[in-house]
Design goal:
With 148 residues, this protein is α+β, with helices and mostly antiparallel strands. The protein contains five helices and four strands. A hairpin with a 2-residue loop joins β2 and β3.
């Protein structure tokens, strides 16, 4: 029998020490690069967007790909790309951890809209509040001292 999956992930992470260094003028270049890495790893990417201190990726991950290894490879390659292209002065690598939240495909359009509207969303809500809300929404136990 073949393997069939349909798990939609929202991946969330940001720069080390939660620096606000992902300036808008070069974000699209970074997102295109990351999109290519994900596609090369058999992912179906629906959307990448973010603000100065974090980003969101909406993607399906192929069942043969380990999520933790995918994110590690994505961070490593994109860090090198940022450095080589001098995209974000002050960027010192990605934070160690990440958030990975799963959704039904039926939630895809709502989720994509949410990620598209990150700038407007963060005019009202800070990243810590957003991240805490995602953790609670997905019933993930966490320790406040380890939140970004």
């Amino acid at each position: 029998m073949s393997t069939y999956t349909q798990i939609l992930y929202q991946l969330v992470f940001g720069p080390r020490a939660h620096q606000s260094c992902l300036k808008k003028n070069h974000r699209e270049q970074l997102f295109r690069y990351m999109w290519g890495i994900l596609e090369n790893n058999k992912c179906h990417v629906y959307r990448i967007n973010g603000v100065e201190d974090h980003l969101h990726i909406i993607t399906h991950v192929h069942p043969t790909i380990a999520l933790s290894q995918l994110i590690s490879d994505l961070k490593l390659a994109s860090s090198a790309f940022i450095s080589e292209q001098h995209l974000f002065p002050g960027f010192d690598g990605w934070q160690e951890g990440y958030g990975a939240f799963t959704y039904s495909i039926k939630e895809k359009d709502r989720l994509i809209d949410y990620v598209i509207n990150q700038e407007a969303h963060h005019e009202k809500t800070g990243f810590r509040e957003e991240y805490r809300s995602l953790l609670k929404e997905h019933d993930i136990t966490f320790d406040e001292k380890y939140l970004l």
